[in-house]
Design goal:
Helices cover 88% and strands 0% of the residues. The chain is mainly alpha-helical. The protein has one domain. The protein is elongated and about 50 Å long.
Amino acid sequence: MNKTLSWLRKAGIAEGISFLVLLFIAMPLKYYYNQPMAVKAVGWLHGVLFIAFLWMAWKYKNDKNKSIRWLAVALAAALVPAGTFLFDKKLKREEVTV
C-alpha cells in the first residue's frame, strides 16, 4: 500500500469533516448564538487540514506523475462541502490498483 495515498485519504476525510463542522456547527454558533470562538477554533483547525490535504495531493501527484487536471480536481474537492468524501471514493479505487 502506498503511504502517501493513505495519508492523502486520511487528510481528505479529516478536512471534509472539519469543513462540515465549520459550516454547520461553528458558523451557526457564531451568528445565531454569538459564540465567535467556535469559528476561531474550528476555522484554524480546518485551515491546517486544508493545507495538509493540498500538500499531500501535491506530493502524491508528483510521486505518481498525475496530471495538473488531477490536482485541480483535488483542489476543487477541498473547496466544495463534502467534496473530499467524493474524491476519496476515487482514491479508494486507485488504492486497490496501486
